[in-house]
Amino acid sequence: MNARGLLANRTILAVFAHPDDESLACGGTLARAAEEGARVVLLCLTRGEQGSISDAALVPDGDLGAVRARELREAAAVLGLAQVVVLDHPDGQLPWVDARLLEAEILVSIRHFQPDAIITFGADGLYWHPDHVAVHERTTAAVAALNARRPALYYVTMPEGTMRAVVEAAPGREAAEARPWGLNPDAFGAEAMPPTLVVDVAAYAARKLAALRCHRTQMGPANPLARLTDEQARDLLGREHFHGAPRASTTGFPLDVLGEPAAEPPTRAIL
Ligand SMILES: [Zn+2]
User: The whole model's pTM is what?
Assistant: First the structure.
């Protein structure tokens, strides 16, 4: 924390579904915001117990959720987060968890931490993961339910082709067989919301990579991010993109001080 940084006395709340979402979606920005004086808090709605296990030795008792919660705390320390709140909703089931309950829990965090800005998934959930889309919907609804002191809401977006470029750059394996988290790299950002803010996180790309690698159970040798060099990360992951929700905020858009506006998205006719 930096008492004289660009975000001194600000609080940023990130709301995501699984341990590792925070690092992949916006780890550079979270680290930079913390360095600029913000208190950065993460609310993670599941422990990710349905995720893959890169090496059985990492989960000797079979309790992947507990291991991933620990990995998340290590990643949070790398990113400089002030606090992590991990809920225990069933991984993979968020769309079917009572929406009012999830919204109420997100509101509890908002009322407790009083964030100036909230970061969460966009409508595409980065690659249409149903849990991610549910987090987008519930967080949007929770913010909309606030009358006073409504924080600015930012959705993470990823330009199409970002993960494809990572796959092709990562040394040591055929790009054709590299599937980050078992996913088609072209799925990332394929239908992302247009960014309104671009944050330069080149100086934080190595920390973003290090935070991702704290999630060891999710980072097997097939994952190109396990092999990317810091220099490549700077080039390929050194800019993070956000879409500011077009909703009246009583706090302004505090993260805008970290970046520059993205090129004007094409205007869409309303009628
Ligand atoms: Zn996720």
Answer: 0.94
Strand partners, 156: 121, 242
φ, ψ of residue 25 in degrees (nearest 5) = -70, -40
Long-range contacts for 179-182 (Cβ within 8 Å, ≥24 apart)? 179/222, 180/223, 180/224, 180/225, 181/52, 181/218, 181/223, 182/52, 182/222
> How does pLDDT run across 118-140, given as a tens digit for each residue?
999 999 999 999 999 999 999 99
Cα 39 to ligand 1 centre (Å)? 23
Query: H helices within 2-98, ranges in order?
Result: 21-35, 64-79
- Residue 12 is classified by DSSP as E
Q: Could you report the per-residue pLDDT of 183-234, keeping only the tens digit for each?
A: 889 999 888 888 999 999 999 999 999 999 999 999 988 889 998 999 999 9
Cα 267 to ligand 1 centre (Å)? 31
Q: How many angstroms does the Cα of residue 232 sit away from the middle of ligand 1?
A: 23
Ligand 1 centroid vs 158 CA: distance in angstroms?
14
pLDDT tens sequence across 12-48: 999 999 999 999 999 999 999 999 999 999 999 999 9
- Domain positions in the chain are 11-261
Q: How far is the CA of 264 from the centre of ligand 1 (A)?
A: 29
Identify the burial level of 57 via C-beta atoms within 10 angstroms of its C-beta, where 0-12 means exposed, 13-18 middle and 19 or more buried.
exposed
Residues measured by CB to lie within 5 Å of ligand 1, the ion: 17-18, 21
Q: Does domain 11-261 have CATH number 3.30.2350.10?
A: no
